[in-house]
Amino acid sequence: MPAFEYSALDDVGRQKKGVIEGDSPKSARQSLRSQGLTPLDINPIARKDRDTKQRSLFSFGKRMSSSELALFTRQLATLLQAGTPLEEALRTSAKQSEKAHVTRTILGVRSKVTPPPPPPPLERLADYTESRQEMQQSVTTALVYPVILLIICIAVVVGLLTYVVPQVVEVFADLGNELPLPTRILLATSDFLRATWWYWIIAIVGGLFAFSYLMKTHSFKSKVHALQLRLPIMGKLIRGLNTSRFARTLSILTASGVPVLEALKISSQVVPNLPMKKAINDAAVNVREGASIHSSLESSKHFPPMTLHLIASGEATGNLEAMLERAATQQERELKTIISATLSLFEPLMIVFMGGLVFMIVLAIMLPLFEMNQLVS
Fold this sequence. Notes:
Elements: E1 3-9, E2 15-21, H1 25-34, E3 38-44, H2 66-81, H3 86-96, H4 100-110, H5 119-174, H6 181-214, H7 218-230, H8 234-255, H9 260-268, H10 274-288, H11 293-298, H12 305-317, H13 320-376
Antiparallel strand pairs: 1-2, 1-3
Helix pairs in contact: 2-3, 2-5, 3-4, 5-6, 5-8, 5-13, 6-13, 7-8, 8-9, 8-13, 9-10, 12-13
């Protein structure tokens, strides 16, 4: 049954917005009137293509978060396993959600459903969304401490340079003695920061706004994503994350009986990195012309060799689905290892680096004291 977004007035004149189902806009208006509401606007929840800025099946206004998507897919898989019809399962999931954008999305999906998917692929999709949300949460949790530590260290260094250093060094400057070179460098740095701090704030804020604006253009965003793939550690993380998403999605789609060409096109939509997404779409064109999947992806040089080897093995043995599943699992394990190793190294290195900066500041302040003690002696 189609779903409609509405705005209406209640019996005291307050405006209400929401989603309602109906066979047509007219029946939706009648349903609203039966609830004591006066319809103002009724619009069908339409489809939007992400690349053409039209609506997509899973992008009605505000997007569902990974945790919301994981919960929805798990609820849907459980209801279908219990024998609940797909339309009723979607309706139930929508009713259980307390967030308007989630309800709107689910009802929009319900209005366009085809015959229900088999529960096993949906179970795999639920497992995948839950594992992805778990990984994102673990990374976010692991980054909290380093980020807080970095902010505190920067605040301490800036405070020392802009407030403490000038007051302490001014005492030595009044004595008329020539200050040591490290102290003069520190004092010049402090004066520079105190004189130009507002420029730095304007430059940082302006740079962030400019970068955010340019990232809305496809060409600039594609160049940034290509640069990310060439970075030493981050490039490997981004490549592995996108590869695991692609392999897992393609495996689920092929297990559901989706044709390979259509599965490749759909799988490309879950890949955020534009060069890798383009490589998958190009591979779909090559596969249509008779090329293999692994050779088409290999030519882009964006995908890990192990993944390409497993895909080639799956194509040769006719067991592509299992090999894609194995490739996704292998990439996810490697990602967890890299993230754990990177974070375990990042924290002590950052402490040593910031400690070195503080030591240099303290040393530059103490050197004049040492010289004064030598003169007194």
